[in-house]
Write a structure and sequence with these properties.
With 286 residues, this protein is α/β, with parallel strands linked by helices. It has helices spanning 2-14, 39-47, 81-86, 101-109, 122-136, 139-160, 187-194, 213-219, 232-244, 258-262, 268-284; strands spanning 16-18, 24-26, 34-36, 54-58, 72-75, 78-79, 91-95, 114-117, 168-172, 197-199, 223-227, 252-256. Helix content is 43%, strand content 16%. Helix 5 runs antiparallel to helix 6, helix 6 runs parallel beside helix 11 (268-284) and helix 7 (187-194) crosses helix 11 (268-284).
Amino acid sequence: MLLTAMPSLAWAASLSVVDDGGETVTLSRPAHRVVTLAPHAAELVAAAGGLAHLVAVSQGSDYPPQVKTLPRVASYQGPNLEAVLAARPALIVAWGSGLSEEMQARLAALGLTTFLSEPRTLAQVLSNIERLGVLMGTRPEAEAYVARLEKRISHLEARDGMEGDAPLPVFFQLGESPMTTLAGGHLVNELIRRCGGEPLLSDAPTVVPQIRREALWLAGPRLILHPVAAGAPRERWKAAWRARGGPLASVALVGLDPDPVSRPGPRSVEAMAQICHAISVQRAAR
């Protein structure tokens, strides 16, 4: 009897991780029905080998393309509890800041297991993938995916990093009117630093500070990055900068694909590649 029970006990013990909210998440068996409540969460689950286990996602989830056909059970206002329950999830993956404590308590009261995902660094993105792989029983696939991302990150740093050179002053423009940036330890600032840049005006106490044009001019950017769709929107953004004239009109402008740079997930490495390329071009032009 004891020998028969041992494998199941060992299996259960292995399905336990700590989420980004600091809570221990434990399952008795691998989660083969997964619901995500944020677009980045769907990307993380897919990267961890769980695409086949996804049964419902949130509005805005569009990557990988296969998730576009899945039911939508949450919006930016929060989850639809009736729809979530109808999906019969063994695991819910939610954005920590996007899920109120009240909603977390309601999900728990309904017997639903939730993993809070809020990666703020590349290392935490990779850790999210690995931990979700544990909970879904897809750990080998998750670890293999993480190994590929680590190799890509190392390649980008080796190719684009210029050890000994002064960092290139880079301004990340989040909003246009008013002009804003991302401050503190936001992932995008880590990507800029990994690529040999120095994010400007990112030391404000607020997460999304408003930036005056005069302050930006005094900071002396060599490159301005902005998440904006390619094509006409990106060209309009560049034209608006040039039309203002003044000393900032000659600063290099590079648009970034919005989703990879705004969603902390596996495509953050794709965003890093775009940022590294933009910085390396400007450093070579010194």
